[in-house]
Amino acid sequence: MSQRxxxxxxxxxxxxxxxxVVPVIPVxxxxxxxxxxxxxxxxxxxxxxxxxxxxxxxxxxxxxxESNSExxxxxxxxxxxxxxxxxxxxxxxxxxxxxxxxxxxVRHGKTPENLLVHGPAGIGKSTTVKHVFxxxxxxxxxxxxxxxxxxxxxRPSLLTELLIQFGYPAPRKGKPxxxxxxxxxxxxxxxxxxxxxxxxxxxxxxxxxxxxDLSMVNQESQNSLGLVMVSNQPPQQVQLDxxxxxxxxxxxxxxxxxNASQLQEILEKRAEKAFQPGAVPDxxxxxxxxxxxxNSGDCRTALKTLHKAGRKAEQEGETKISIENLKMT
Length: 329
Ligand SMILES: Nc1ncnc2c1ncn2[C@@H]1O[C@H](COP(=O)(O)OP(=O)(O)OP(=O)(O)O)[C@@H](O)[C@H]1O
Ligand SMILES: [Mg+2]
Description:
Elements: H1 2-21, H2 24-50, H3 56-59, H4 63-66, H5 93-103, E1 114-118, H6 125-139, E2 143-148, H7 155-166, H8 177-190, E3 194-199, H9 207-220, E4 225-231, H10 242-248, E5 250-254, H11 260-274, H12 282-295, H13 299-315, H14 323-327
Helix pairs in contact: 5-6, 7-8, 8-9, 9-10, 11-12, 11-13, 12-13
Bound molecules: adenosine-5'-triphosphate (ATP) and magnesium ion (MG).
Magnesium ion binds next to helix 6.
């Protein structure tokens, strides 16, 4: 009896399965065949759009991207990127010395100065601090950590990144702050000579807590870390409560916008690497430097203007940039 029931049930099951699958068959058929045939029909559709004789093969010839490949204008555009780190920042000798002086004491286990570097956009604050930090690692046995708070803008993410740069394996997300801080302290007890730069400091969500954390760690560890904060905001606008401000006991270094002759020198150095010889006449560089110095002194803008003028000249098949190309940027 139960065997019969089983047979009946199996029959029912089979029937149900077939009736469910049958409506799906046309859909599957369309999906496999229909979409494939659509793909196959693309060339002919495209041919129609392109007109009589042009075939796809002709259109996709590499000369679309290869034409003008080395270019009459550019040699290597990467030197015009705003992320490019120059070998030595032009015209920032005094600032380089000041930043170096602030972090130097950590090499001998002495207490460093904390420094707030500030000034408007595009005037070489990050570039200069990065340069000093690179030199600190190259020329001393110290450790230099450069963190951008645009990317790590919360207390746990910044402290975690600090630990990772110290060489700890990446801690799992959600580690309690106390644990992160005690690891940082442990590292500072064993290592002397660490300088930490927090770039775009004004992007931090909780600057007061971060400063408080780092000052506490400094007080409780065998060795201190040298802290350099970089910000667009002047010191009085940096959001710190009085307690953190007083603990930080911060010195300041103000960057001034570039003048025309500094911008000219920066542009000349970049142009030498980025452009073909003779592609950038002196008058073009002078005009950009003059105009930018009058408006903002922002080196990023100067580099962008030169880059765009270069692109314009290239599009027009020229071998050098003209003042006219500048007007069109
Ligand atoms: N002294 C310099 N020598 C060579 N290149 C420079 C110099 N100063 C700035 N630059 C270039 O100008 C661009 C902007 O510089 P940087 O990013 O350092 O400015 P910033 O002051 O940090 O700006 P922001 O406040 O927007 O972060 C970068 O491409 C950098 O390479
Ligand atoms: Mg910067």
